[in-house]
Design a protein that fits this description.
The protein has helices at 20-29, 31-56, 58-87, 166-175, 212-221, 326-335, and strands at residues 2-3, 11-17, 92-97, 100-103, 117-121, 125-132, 135-142, 162-165, 193-199, 227-231, 235-240, 245-246, 250-251, 256-262, 267-268, 274-275, 280-287, 290-297, 300-301, 304-305, 307-309, 322-324, 342-344. It has 351 residues and is an alpha+beta fold. The chain crosses the membrane at residues 36-56, 62-83. Keywords: Membrane, Transmembrane, Transmembrane helix.
């Protein structure tokens, strides 16, 4: 939302805060955060154990130390959840001039656009990374598309401090004098759109309960694209981000895209209850010389998936290997002529 359009005042936008789930996911997958929690727990446990042990005996000290450390490990995530819930309900007022960006959270600080960098906001859009002294602020552009020439110098993030929809995000960049630069702008007419394919977090459901290493590897990979597709009006290129070497362009006429709804078979537990896996809207993309690329979109409106297919769709008994943002999802649907068959709850007049 944009407020205060007076030409003499900074342009102001009302940005949405990060969701509880995104903040908690950032906490759960943040290596530094977890190390800090474990370090604090060990430190408190040692101090408490040594202090009690000196007066009441070694055995009692060890017990108190373990208890204190365990309490820290349990209480810190609970405190973080309370903070995430509170933060998710606080709108963020952003003021913008050609000199930089101001945040109501830090009055007086100016976050310069000069050293701002752009990076992926995983499965959501893009993230603009800004700093003012010791303060850092990450502003998300939800549903924002990127061009094949867009520089993504900042690392991918699972959560942002606040976000705007794509149109307002571009308007903010224009006010700040950054929209015209090739390093941050979206795709120009006729230019290839870059679609980032990330690992599907639902793949964890097909791993065993004790496959700790596989679960850890999947969690660590969720923030890094596994595959990149550059799609324009005439051709598609497949890029392995680990090699950064694009394949030869393949004519769009040689590529197929089939609407799909990915849903593994339900499972029945020992007590007779049935669990239904999520039905994920997706695509099966066939590219010559490449194994079928199975893609889904996990964007939500409330508790429901944002997108669905009109009419019948192929129903593979599996999970898609990759997931994309809503912007990339719409790009693929449009480029392959499937947009008329796609239902978007955000654009529905009933929402």
């Amino acid at each position: 939302m944009r407020v205060n359009d007076s030409p003499s005042a900074p342009r102001q936008f009302v940005a949405s805060p990060a969701s509880v789930s995104a903040t908690m996911n950032e906490f759960a997958t943040g290596k530094r955060t977890l190390n800090a929690v474990y370090g604090l727990a060990i430190g408190v446990g040692l101090v408490a154990g040594v202090g009690v042990g000196a007066g009441a005996g070694v055995g009692t000290g060890i017990g108190v130390g373990l208890g204190a450390g365990t309490a820290i490990i349990m209480l810190v995530p609970m405190a973080w959840l309370a903070y995430a819930w509170w933060r998710s309900r606080q709108k963020v007022l952003v003021g913008v001039t050609n000199e930089g960006l101001s945040i109501d959270r830090w009055p007086g600080d100016v976050f310069s656009f000069a050293d701002a960098t752009l990076g992926p906001w995983v499965n959501m859009g893009v993230a603009l990374h800004l700093r003012s002294g010791s303060h850092r602020f990450v502003l998300g552009g939800r549903d924002r598309r990127i061009a094949s020439s867009t520089r993504l110098d900042a690392p991918p993030v699972q959560a942002v401090d606040a976000w705007l929809w794509d149109a307002e995000f571009d308007e903010l960049l224009a006010v700040g004098g950054r929209q015209g630069g090739a390093d941050v702008r979206g795709p120009a007419p006729g230019e290839a759109t870059r679609c980032l394919l990330f690992p599907n977090p639902y793949l964890a459901e097909q791993m065993g309960s004790f496959a700790f290493r596989k679960h850890l590897q999947l969690q660590r990979s969720l923030s890094q694209p596994s595959l990149v597709l550059d799609v324009d009006d005439d051709a598609i290129r497949v890029i392995d981000p680990n090699r950064d070497t694009p394949s030869a362009p393949v004519s769009r006429a040689q590529v197929t895209a089939t609407p799909a709804i990915y849903q593994p078979d339900s499972v029945t537990s020992g007590d007779g209850s049935t669990y239904d896996y999520a039905a994920i809207p997706g695509l099966v993309v066939g590219i010559p010389g490449v194994p079928p690329v199975t893609i889904g979109c996990l964007d939500l409106v409330g508790s429901q998936f944002r997108f669905s297919w009109r009419g019948d769709a192929h129903r593979p008994n599996e999970r898609p290997a990759y997931v994309v943002s809503a912007a990339d999802w719409r790009t693929l649907a449009e480029k392959f002529g499937l947009a008329p068959h796609l239902e978007d709850m955000r654009r529905s007049p009933t929402t």
